[in-house]
Design brief:
With about 725 residues, this protein is α+β, with helices and mostly antiparallel strands. It is about 25% helix and about 25% strand. It is built from 15 helices and 24 strands. The two termini are about 25 Å apart.
Length: about 725
Amino acid sequence: MTKGSNVALTALSEDVGSVIVSLGWVSPTGEGDADVSVLLLDTNGKVRSDADFYFYNNPVAADGSVQLLGKTPTEDGNEDRICFDLTAVPPGVDRIVVAASRYGEARFGELDALQVRLADAAGESLLRFAIDDAAEVSAIIFGEVYRRGEEWKFRAVGQGYDTGLAGLATDFGVDIDDDAAEVEAAQAGAEALSGAEALSGVESEAGPESAYESECQPGSAGRQSARATAVAAPAETNSSGQPDPAAPATTPGAAPATLEAVPAPRRPDTAETEPTKQPAVRASRPRTAKKKVALPKVTRTSLAENDSWRPARLFPVSALKNDRERETRATSVLLSVMAQVPRFGRRLTAAFGAPSGRMETFTEVSLPHGDTPRRPDGVIRIERAGKLWTALVETKTNGNPLKADQVQAYMDIAARRGYEAVITVSNDVALEGSPLVDVKIDRRRKHKVALWHLSWAEVAYQAQLLIRHEGVGNAARTWLLEELLEYLQHENSGCHGFQNMGSAWVPVRNGISDETLCQGDPRSLEVIESWERLIRQVCLRLGGELGQKVLPVQRARRGTDHGTRRVQLADQLCLEGRLQAELRVEQAPGVLTIGADLRTGKLRTSVEIPAPEQGYPLSWAKRLVRRLAEAPADLHVETLLESEPGGPRGTLERLRPEPADLLPKNSATRISGFRLSLFKGMGSSRGNTESGFIRSVDEAVHRFYTTVVVHLDQPAPRRAAPREPART
């Protein structure tokens, strides 16, 4: 689509009751990021209340009409997804504005390949709109979904704001509470709380509501005004570039009225017209300052007589004797908790295009299929406004792979019976652009069935986020999620996630050690795919513990497809004998790098932090050593120089008494930053045993983040250097 064009969603697909909108971008440095936001507007172009503003501190609508699904990595950037259940959008909402913002001093001009995509409930992409003229703005309206009579349409907007998320939201009528001093004080106070004090603090602010719903808290009143920048969209046209006859006419010389994204002047409210009258309720005012996660440290004293006693569990695993019993139990446990904890069930199904509604789940359902009935492991049914959304569920535990013929049969059954999806759940992790099982889809059928995959690691990740960081509404539901997580993490459940590097791991490792592995060997490609799965799982586990986004960074040339990129990495593995990956952790001072040298059997975890913009090098070195007072003594610290390949280095144990050893001998040499690294021997076996490679990678990343990265300052965002104009 082009800027200003529009298209009816029903003209693109028959299944648009639920749609997924994805905003994407590419960071040349690998560290830039943005956050999506959604505003529900009435016919006056304003939010009906502050509750119509959805962003990182308010990600889910109570009626299920909007849910921010979070970021997923793409080939060379990020994609942030939003699920809209258009059947649940209230009648008073006329337009849905989809925007993104950057935090602090960051600007969209520093990012490349800005685009928005829209997909239907079956996951098929319907449209794409690229923004090629992003300026030095901190917020952009990518597009909007709006009503025209009885149907929904999408308009490509591409309009920039130079006042960030708070300014954009304020202009659409949101009463933002962003007093900087109080935000910092509140966050510092939250970090100082621990144990029961932290828990009681959440309750005192939120009352009966959950911690998840208490993220938008009031502070001092401080309204911000904002004006849109000159990155305005042209008059509305249809997808063919012709004017839309349904759109209102524009006035010459005025801002394009058809865009409807440029807000009207803010209407005065009661607080403005009557300064002496205090508002009755202030807790609904959103705060755009990013919430810092401070986990409560609660120590419970056990009442057991000795350590051999085990607490009773809702979902016991000791009686599980074989894989069939494990699959049956795991399916029943997962589906029952999804139905009883609506926020958890919605979190898992929203990404699959499921609507928000009453959910019921079933196991061991018999369905006719030729001469022999089929029995899928489970069925999910969601009722919304008298309509049913149904998905078949196929589950695998331990190392059992999904069977293509079995999944194909379920796809055929779903198509004949009008079901919307087939969901597979296993310990394997799906790779982008590479389905776990190949199925044939009969394009002649009018009804489309979507095939989706969940890893057990992702299920545990979502449960951990809700338990430890967001909340689910009451203690009983929290306990159910805790029991589910305890079950998944038990050694006998068979739901531990990706835990085997595959049969090619040992031959490739031996071939690298003996220098007999040749480029083009298909086994090296298998190892690269297993490594990518492992890194995705490491991101899920670390993100669940931190309550922050952790994503793998995939650097590749523009236009390189997934298969070609993996072949290039496989050839590089044969030549260098090393596996390497980068992880981007939200609010971390830099990108985390994890490398496995198969020749030496060593794992290296590291992070590069930039040098401060002000001060003296000796002060930088002393401050860095002080910040790392509790870090491991064997931490390697290396000074990065602008003009030389390698600078001074040493272990933290040696540098603590002499931080000046980090300075170069030539005082004129400029320091660009510091690299911090920890080394660890990697496991010899291919699996997830105590001596396994997978466990050693998990432990290395966890140890490095919790003992090193948490002690570092988050640097202030830097402006990218201005781009040189294109030569003609």
